[in-house]
Structures are given as structure tokens and as C-alpha cells.
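U., I forgot to send this yesterday:
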Amino acid sequence: MGPSGTEEGSLEKADLPDFHQLFPDRDIAKEWNERLDKYEVPALVDLERPVDSDRLYKVYETIQPQMENEYEKWVMARRKDITHDYSPKTYYRKILTHPTELAKKVQAQVDEIKGANWKDRGGKPDPRKMIEALRTLNENYEPLFDERNYSVWDPAVFGTYLEDVFRMVKGRITRARFAVLPPNSGVVPHIGMVTKYTVRLHVPIKTNPYCFNFAMVRGRLVMYHMQPNTWTLLNTSYQHWAYNYGSEDRVHLILAVDGDEDLRDYYQRKSMTPGQFKEYFVDEA
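Result:
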């Protein structure tokens, strides 16, 4: 038997908190339907919006000692013997945003009803069920899994150039991190979230000519070097990965953005329609 005398697996949405309270004055399903889909978003594209990477790196150097580390599971480090070390400490991120107090409160209510912490309920999540929960806020929804609830900026952001950069973004910033990829290491191929849920914006603040991002788009390889001093949008719904072949750390500011306003702004500035873009296919180089 589960909590409150219910049988395991028989939990009804009526037993759970109203998740819509997390998104006041928003129609999540309507937003989802109106946003650009996977094939209307390039794998990688320079949004051609200027940002000062050197100033961002100075902020990073100042605040990073006090920032919390978040270790990335999608990681590999290539050693001299050509083996792969999957230690998470080879790729780490400095957290710049945090969950709202309401999200933490609602998650605690869910955990109490379901009888375990959301991270400890076990089992590999079903991607389809996970995405459906994010779209409909159904009984499988977990507030602290949903990056849309990570909208509280870290106090270290305020009063710095980083705050100015955050305010340049047209969509809603959710998860934000400084991500550090050491020399001769990479992020393993993986698939992230659908574009109707989130897009990723990258600003390289320390890089070298030997850092590359890759993606598989309809069976073809895309290879791209992200430039500093501009925003690059990454479509994580394609299988993608990265590698730093250089001799210095690669440091990126990475923002998860709830909304496609920044890409639509790019299309408008370029007089382009959604889906009208160039992919950087290796076989066309």
C-alpha cells in the first residue's frame, strides 16, 4: 500500500497540489502549442547579438569561488591512454539560479504524498511521460525537475555585468550556469529537452580554436565552433555533444530559456521565416 492507504501506482491527480499555482496567469499548454518546433530551430546558430565575453569572464573569476558546483553526468575525459574517465568532476558548472520557494514547498507536498523524495523514487524516467508531464502538469509532474521553476537569480549576479547580460535575454531565464570543460575532455552525445519547452543560449567567455560542438541532424553531422562576444542558440532536442581539444579550459555562460522570443527576434532581424536557416553540415564544408 502507498501513502494514505492508496495502492502503489493508483495515485490520482486530485490527491496532489494544483501545479498551475506555479505558473500564475500563464496557459502552459497554449504556450507549448504556439512555440517553434524542433525543425523550425537550427541545431546551432549565432544570434548576432553582441555581448562582452571578457567582462563576463572577469565576473566569473570574481564570483566563482563562492558559487555552488553542479557536476554534469554527461561527461567524459580523454586521457593519454585513450580511455574514457566518466568522473563527473571533469565537467562542472557554477549555479547561477535557484528554485522558487513556492516550487520547493509544492515539491515537499508531492514528496510527502508519494512517500519519498523526488530524486529517490528510483527507476529510469520515461522521456515521453516526462515531457507530457511538463506540458500538461499531470500527476507525473515534479516541480523541482522542471527548470522553469529555477528563476531566482543568485545574489552574486546582481550589480555585475552578468546582471546586464541576463536582462538582455527576451525569454524567461530559468537554469543558468557557468560551465567549465577542461582541456582534452568532452561531453558525451545525449539528447536534451524539446524546443517547445526550452532552448539553450551559450556565450563562450573563455575558449580556444579547438573547441567544437556537434549535433546529428537527420542523420548528418553538424560541427560548430562557438564564437565569443555573441549569443549562440543550441537546439538540445537533437543528439549533441562537445569536445575541448585545446590546452586551456573552455568556460561558457549557459542559459536555459523558457520561450523562443530570442530566436524569433533573430528571424525578424534577418527577415527570415522559421525553419529558413543554414545548418553547418560537415559534408558541405
